[in-house]
Design goal:
By secondary structure, the protein is an alpha/beta fold. The protein is built from four helices and five strands; from the N terminus they run H-E-E-H-E-H-E-E-H. A five-stranded mixed β-sheet has the order 2-1-3-4-5. The chain binds zinc ion (ZN). Zinc ion binds next to helix 3.
């Protein structure tokens, strides 16, 4: 198991147990695999509310002709529709790859409680890389963030995908 990154504070008091986290991340990985099968960059996301998955999506930028159709954006839209509110205050988001700047901002606007992600993304990430959006002064809601959940599998999917492109 990769260790949790230490620069984010962890509050295990009410956070889901390790096995549960892994099963939600496994669902996100399933979405990532389905995205890869459709020729999309393999990233998947699920949103959990009170122990239930209320949204799941994989990247669909090519399918939808939409550069904003990242897994997190699609899952957030699905979740707000499911809940019937613009905010997801008690929701946790699981995504296989470190969110980009756009998705980190959307996660903040949606008031998501916790973010669990798999692989870090030095090229496009905005959580522990790049602009580190949640630590910026223009970020007004910071979720709790836990990296490295299911990291090896998420990274392997991406490597396989980009290897095939070459
Ligand atoms: Zn994104």
């Amino acid at each position: 198991m990769p260790s949790l990154r230490s620069d984010f504070s962890e509050n295990l008091g009410s956070a889901p147990k390790t096995a549960m986290r892994q099963s939600f991340m496994d669902m996100a990985l399933e979405e990532a695999r389905a995205a890869a099968a459709a020729g999309e960059v393999p990233v998947g996301c699920v949103i959990v509310y009170s122990g239930e998955v209320i949204a799941c999506a994989g990247n669909r930028t090519l399918t939808d002709f939409d550069p904003t159709a990242h897994a997190e954006m699609l899952a957030i839209r699905e979740a707000t529709t499911a809940i019937g509110a613009q905010r997801l205050a008690d929701c946790d988001l699981y995504v296989t790859l470190e969110p980009c700047t756009m998705c980190a901002a959307a996660i903040s606007y949606a008031r998501i409680r916790r973010v669990y992600y798999g692989a870090a993304d030095p090229k496009g990430g905005a959580v522990e890389n790049g602009v580190r959006f949640f630590s910026s002064s223009t970020c007004h809601h910071r979720p709790e963030v836990y990296g490295g959940i299911g990291e090896a599998e998420a990274a392997a999917l991406l490597q396989e995908f980009f290897r095939k492109l070459r």
